[in-house]
């Protein structure tokens, strides 16, 4: 469905991550984890890129969240102001979760959190019985997108456990550190072998997480993933591309 919508809020999540909230049209529906195209301009100048909804269908607004890389699409998003009208085309995608599994593990790094945040918020608002274990990797503890959103959700949802690992921590960091590896999954995710895994982010990161999961013995049918194409070492950095 193609539609126009007005930006109602801009939220700076970290130094390089911004969320744009916009009006949800009356009859628009989507599943947690799905994505939309954002369309800028017309004709040969048109730029049309996919972004996952970071909002949940349980919320009154729509929201997308972009890692700002300084490239063209990032600049267009960074320039958006409250009141601007956006052109969208969505929802698309089959990477979604409505609480249909009893135990899931969500794995992500940096901006890859967006569809998972949508799913977690949905399960929290709907009070689903799903046991969710999130293992979320970031480079620095002061640049964790949605930190201020995930921690209150963990307090509100007794079935949600949020584990964060920092690959370049400050001496003050008391949590997990280093890249996600098999030992970290086994020691932080209870009943890790029984879960369905939802992995999302830039393609190289998802591929390395998926290999890791099969190496520790998970069946490919237990792993669902969303690739964010459009990232490479020039715009995502080592951290995101694995
Ligand atoms: C299903 C899906 C969901 C996604 N969800 C999200 C999300 O929630 N959040 C998010 O941040 N991203 C998401 N993405 C990725 C997003 O669509 C963009 O591709 C990505 O953010 C890159 O944007 P950018 O501004 O860095 O670069 P862009 O301007 O889009 O450039 C992308 C690529 O083109 C190259 N490039 C750019 N300009 C030039 C040029 N002039 N000449 C040659 N090459 C060039 C860049 O090196 C880069 O590799 C998603 C992707 C998919 C497929």
Ordered list of secondary-structure elements with their pairings:
Blueprint: E1 2-14, E2 17-23, E3 35-40, E4 47-52, E5 61-67, H1 72-78, E6 85-92, E7 103-109, H2 114-126, E8 131-138, H3 147-156, E9 160-166, E10 176-177, H4 182-188, E11 196-202, H5 203-215, E12 223-228, H6 237-241
Parallel strand pairs: 7-8, 7-11, 8-9, 9-10, 11-12
Antiparallel strand pairs: 1-2, 1-6, 2-5, 3-4, 3-6
Short note summarizing the structure:
By secondary structure, the protein is an alpha/beta fold. The protein is built from 6 helices and 12 strands.
Low-confidence parts, pLDDT < 50 over ≥5 residues? none
Using only CA atoms, what is the Rg? Answer: 17 Å
Q: What is the arithmetic mean of pLDDT?
A: 94
**From the helix content, strand content and strand pairing, which structural class follows?**
alpha/beta
CATH architecture of the largest domain: 3-Layer(aba) Sandwich
Structurally, the number of domains stands at 2
Largest beta-sheet characterization = 6 strands, antiparallel
The CATH superfamily name of the largest domain is: Nucleotide-binding domain of ferredoxin-NADP reductase (FNR) module
CATH top level label of the largest domain: Alpha Beta
Order of helices and strands: EEEEEHEEHEHEEHEHEH
How many helices? The count is 6
Give the end-to-end Cα distance, rounded to a whole number of Å.
34 Å
Topology, number of strands = 12
| Range of helix content | 10-25%
List the strand order in the largest sheet: 4-3-6-1-2-5
Protein name: Xylene monooxygenase
GO molecular function, one term: metal ion binding
Cofactor: FAD
Pfam families: FAD_binding_6, NAD_binding_1
